[in-house]
Amino acid sequence: MTTALVALVAVLLDAWLGEPRRAHPLVAFGRAVRALEARLHGDRRISGVIAWSLAVLPLTLLTALVMNAAHDRSPSFAAALSAAVLYLAIGHRSLHDHARPVADALAAGRLDDARAAVGRMVSRDTGALDASQVAAAATESVLENGNDAVFAALFWFALLGAPGAVLYRLANTLDAMWGYRTPRYERFGWAAARLDDVLNWVPARLTAMTYALLGQTARALRCWRLQAPLWDSPNAGPVMAAGAGAIGTRLGGAAPYHGVWEERPTLGEGAPADEDSVRRALALVRGGVTLWVVLGLLVAGARAVA
Question: Membrane-crossing residues (predicted)?
Fold first, then answer.
């Protein structure tokens, strides 16, 4: 019951406060990682393995030691500390804070403002996107980050407590920093990309199932089965295919990266993306968070009664 209640408190804190505007621990972690990369970068996989281990494992171990000490002092204090850690690990409100301006700008016909807003969410070249492509980029980001920034952190917290949430969030951050297939990171970032794939494998499929259950279920499952294997990411594919099918929109397709248009498989079915697609994706993630927390409380309550 404690784990479920802590998750509820963390979700409510995130909804109330959002991400810290100043001194977010992940920002400090990013700065430290850049310094670590400057010292350890090499065109070898072992360099990336060592850098990943030094960045993630000590902080995860420290979290475990602190949580054990806190629990010995007071279980209530340990629960409060766990809620704070999980709050910092999830970014549900941040998804809304970033995606809503895109939808609002598109609805008002302000394409340049929508491009600027979506540029804060995705890595593609947004200046070349039309309105539907802007909406698709924002919708894809919401669906994918619903897993990366919310559901996967909740999963690892449920499994391993605060250390699990820290392990996952740091690994996911390193994947965002090093997991690119560029000359600099092709080998050095290999460990970050593969370990993130491993940590996300189960949560991504639970997220995809959540999207399917809360949306157009048959279409979502069909898109997941047929389209996800065509996507280059083993975890983003199921999440975005199921999510696009669940909200009845078409995503994927060509997108510009570093001045080059890359062809990508189609995801989902239905009409091209628009501002309403962004809002439906946000609602899907919001409904999924509610479902996970409620199910957690029900399971914990049933176990307590038993």
Answer: 49-70, 149-171, 283-305
- How long a stretch of residues is the chain? 306
Is residue 173 within 8 A of residue 32, CB to CB? The reply is no
Domain boundaries of the chain, sorted by first residue: 2-305
Q: Confidence class of residue 207 from pLDDT cuts 50, 70 and 90? A: very high
Flag whether pLDDT at 259 surpasses 90. Answer: no
Whole-Å CA distances, 28 to 34, 88, 130, 149, 269: 10, 13, 36, 18, 41
* pLDDT higher than threshold 70 for residue 1: no
Angle, CA 28 vertex, CA 26 and CA 30 arms, to 5°? 70
Amino acid, single-letter form, for residue 252 = G
Sign of CA dihedral 251, 252, 258, 261: negative
Closest CA to 147 of 232, 45, 48, 234: 234
Token pair 């972690």 in the structure block, residue: 29
Per-residue pLDDT tens over the stretch 99-147 = 999 999 999 999 999 999 999 999 888 998 999 999 999 999 999 999 9
pTM: 0.95
Buried b (16+ CB within 10 A) or exposed e, 272-285: ebbbbbbbbbbebb
